[in-house]
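Supplementary notes for students who missed Thursday's class. We covered one full example, reproduced here. Read the sequence, then the structure, then the short commentary at the end.
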Amino acid sequence: MKAKPQVSPSEADCLQRALNGDEQAFTELVDLYQTPVHNLCYRMLGNLQEAEDAAQETFWRAYRNLQRYDPNRSFPTWLLSIAAHYCIDQQRRRRLPVIELDEIFEDMEDITADPGPTPEKIITENEDIQVVQKQLAGLNPVDKAVLVLRYFQEMSEDEICKALSISKSAVKSRLHRARLHLANQMMNNKFNMISEGRYHESLSI
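Structure (token representation):
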């Protein structure tokens, strides 16, 4: 996994000016971080328009609560935590059926076992973003948030703990279950492709 770049002096200066009430500086922060925020929202919600709305809401909430921001904390992490919590709430309000992975794997004791293909491998093997979104769609909202923050936003487990206000053991458990879900999805996709291929072969005989 790539090491995340440090915040540049210009970004730090922009953040400090925003904290001092400079609205133009906050607009500059929006320009700096709109891509990672939008990407997270899209990974979580799977819809471009909803992602745009969620990104706008994220920055609005950040602006309203800027004075609550702790300068000792990473600003991108704080910003993405706002986005993640908002997207989790939106998914829950949809009342759409999701896979409750806690129920499926509640009898599993060893959560450190090799779950098979990693999310990075699954992503690189699927160039079509819609395929990736479909694989993410069935995840419980919090499991999805943990996976997106870890593998798409490259947050550490400690950063995810702070962003989602959950324990490190919960991060590890949810991350493991999300990996299992993606691995199973990939295997099912391959099985379906093979089955369809055999069906078409039988038609041509």
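Commentary. The mean pLDDT is 76. The chain has ten helices and no strands. If anything here is unclear, bring it to office hours.
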